[in-house]
Write a structure and sequence with these properties.
- The protein is about 40% helix and about 30% strand.
- The chain is an alpha/beta fold and about 200 residues long.
- It has two domains: about 1-55; about 65-190, Rossmann fold (3-Layer(aba) Sandwich).
- Strands 1, 2, 3, 4, 5 and 6 form a six-stranded mixed beta sheet that branches.
- Strand 4 and strand 5 form a beta hairpin.
- Helix 3 (about 90-105) runs parallel beside helix 4.
- The longest helix is centred in the first third of the chain and has 36 residues, at about 5-40.
- It is flat.
């Protein structure tokens, strides 16, 4: 007789535990599946969205193709210490490097009529504003190759650090000055490369 109430209490406790476990399990299942259901994956058909890709290659009369990449650099580039960021850094760098290095390619065109490709990778870019001073730091790795055959010719690094007493909103001149310094360094390096 004494064992009977114990068994009843044990059954009741087990039954309550089973109900709690089922409710917790069902709740956990709901939590686990809700986020997956809330964000449906959207598939974009590239050909339908943008049409067929078209690769533009440089014409033979262009002796130097400058290609820039900035895979590890945020775009737009945020300015630490100010609510400002700079966009189009990579494209601006391509213009700066191209304008400084094309004269070298023009001067050596007869040595390699098919031309060259200068691959410039922006490996560091930092912008900081403190004490009313904007400071820009950039580093690139440049690789020169033949345009046809993609034959490696040379590689170098260039670095610049430029600062100015300007508000971050007016900082383009400081960035361009830094890019111009690096571009002149790259042009000087090309002067010592065997084309």
């Amino acid at each position: 007789m004494q064992g009977e109430p114990f068994r009843s209490r044990h059954r009741v406790a087990r039954a309550r535990w089973a109900v709690r476990t089922t409710l917790i399990g069902a709740f956990g299942l709901t939590l686990a599946t809700t986020p997956a259901c809330a964000h449906r994956m959207k598939t974009i058909a590239l050909l339908q969205e943008a049409g067929a890709p078209w690769t533009v290659t440089p014409r033979p009369e262009i002796p130097l193709e400058v290609v820039t990449r900035s895979t590890a650099i945020p775009d737009p580039l945020p300015v630490e210490g100010a609510p400002v960021s700079y966009a189009d850094v990579e494209h601006s760098l391509a213009h700066a490097v191209g304008s400084a290095t094309v004269p070298w390619a023009e001067a050596h065109r007869h040595q390699r009529p098919e031309g060259w490709q200068l691959f410039v990778e922006l490996v560091q870019a930092d912008a900081e504003f403190s004490d009313q001073r904007l400071k820009i730091t950039m580093s690139v790795r440049a690789t020169l190759r033949t345009r046809y055959g993609n034959v490696y010719l040379a590689q170098t690094h260039a670095h610049c650090q430029q600062a100015g007493l300007v508000e971050p909103e007016r900082g383009a001149s400081v960035i361009y000055s830094c890019m111009a310094r690096m571009s002149r360094d790259l042009a000087g390096w090309l002067g010592g490369v065997e084309p």
